[in-house]
Amino acid sequence: MTAYVLIASQSVATVNLVKEATDGRDYQVIPTTSSSLALFLSQKNLPDIILCEGNLADGTGIDLLKETKADPELKSIPFVFLCPSKDLAELSRKTAGLGVDDVIALPIEPGNLLREIIPHVHRRLSTKETREPETPE
Q: Roughly what angle, to the nearest 10 degrees, separates helices 12-22 and 110-127?
């Protein structure tokens, strides 16, 4: 079964890191640079994990987290922040109690990133409810 990874980041390097970490595995990476598009793509694709950086083109990762956790269809999707190691403590404090599943410090090696996200993806896949694909109108 293909696992869908939505990555919300303005950084090409971070998107490439996620692609490299999942390369050769049954993962489909869905990149976006904005909060609004990330929310839309999440609602459309129901990814198995959302990886997000703090600043997006039209908002913050915390805004996206709040919107995702407020949506009944999206709230069970694991939400993981990727942030510079120097900002780890502050971001962990800001997201406490908001439903974030993990905060991973950057830089990180692709193999280590994969090891960090696999448990979240497996948990999601084991409990995921399926729905009929949306039909284009």
A: 70
| 135 assigned to some structural domain | no
Q: What is the DSSP string of 50-67?
A: EEE-SEETTEEHHHHHHH
Q: What is the CATH number of the domain that holds 22?
A: 3.40.50.2300
The Cα 117–Cα 29 span in angstroms is 13
Is 64 inside any structural domain? yes
Question: Residue 26 corresponds to which amino acid?
Answer: D
Residue-wise pLDDT for 90-110, tens only, equals: 998 999 899 999 999 999 999
What's the pLDDT tens digit per position in 29-72?
999 999 999 999 999 999 999 999 999 999 999 999 999 999 99
| Residue 132 placed within a domain | no
| Beta strand ranges found along 65-122 (DSSP E) | 79-84, 102-106
Dmax over Cα atoms in the chain, in whole Å? 46
How, if at all, do strands 3-8 and 49-52 pair? parallel
Query: How many structural domains comprise the chain?
Result: 1
Q: Is 0.85 surpassed by the pTM of this model?
A: yes
